# Entry
Amino acid sequence: MDDSDPIDNRLFVLILQHPREKKEALATAALTLAMLRRAALAVGLSWANLGQALGRPADPRRWAVLYLGSARPRAFGRERDLVALDRHGEPEVDQRAALRDLEGAVLLDGSWGEAKALWWRNPWLLKLRRLVLDPQQPSHYNRVRREPRREALSTIEAAALLLSRIDGRPEIEVAMNAALDRLIAETRPRARALGSNIL
# Structure
């Protein structure tokens, strides 16, 4: 995969970004967008529906959202790092079928509290399929910004894991995590010089 070319992802990624997150030194939404051919960013607190957030008509039945609720993937007793849930928060019986015809996925970008605010302010997200991540490796982001839960990932890591599993291309995860490592390496010295609270 050539670093200069955007990744030709099949699954469209829509990032809903809390307005405060744009000010974070290590916000990863812009880098995620730059790396993907099929992605869009909507900054705000609420939208009337998926189509308004996306800027074009979309069928919510063919879209998923990375779910932030109380679901704990390890509790399902599965050795999967991506789990599709039904409306009751239980794993879909046929995981392949639940993921097969997805057109796109929504990621919420912000601190844990900001992402929860986006979830509650946009009830149309309940119409989308729900996905939860259970990464096998800890977040690269933990070196610079503490995450509240073990399965919490930065936006770029979440997109990388999601796309690599759904598109069946592990090289996507490798490339996007390498880009995050470069961002961390570049940002950390600048943040220390400016007295930022980055670890």
User: Anything to note?
Assistant: Residues 12-69+80-194 form one domain. The chain has six helices and six strands. The helical segments are 29-35, 50-54, 95-100, 112-121, 155-166, 170-194.
